[in-house]
Give the backbone structure.
Amino acid sequence: MKTVADIFKRKGTNNITVAPDTTVLDALKIMAEKNIGSVVVMQNGVYNGLFTERDYARKVILHGKSSADLRVGEIMSEYLPSVAPTSSLEACMEIMTNHNIRYLPVFVNEEYVGVISIIDVVKETILAQKDTIEHLQNYIHS
């Protein structure tokens, strides 16, 4: 059974981070430059939350606020469910589906270690299925 640790083995745990006082506009520029949908909000090495494209769309644009003046700390997603590196991909999919979210922070003993996205989970699931198919084909042909 594949776990969050398998995702980290493939992609690493380095995430793009910003401080809570970063403007929404600056965070969006970083996200566009890196072609990512979220940034981790950290202060003094401590996880504060995630700022996502969805936060921008629902908490800035729809409320007519200014991206240049608003800070990510004011609108970030703070209380997302979290998982551990030992969590199964199936458990992650269930949590993401039940909470209608696309990102999960990962913690070990309350210490932040990284974030995974639904794309990470799907990609790892596809790789696992390809491995299974290859093993079955080898078994059949041997």
Remarks:
- The domain at 4-141 is CATH 3.10.580.10 (CBS-domain).
- The radius of gyration is 17 Å.
- The beta strands are 17-18, 38-43, 46-52, 103-108, 111-117.
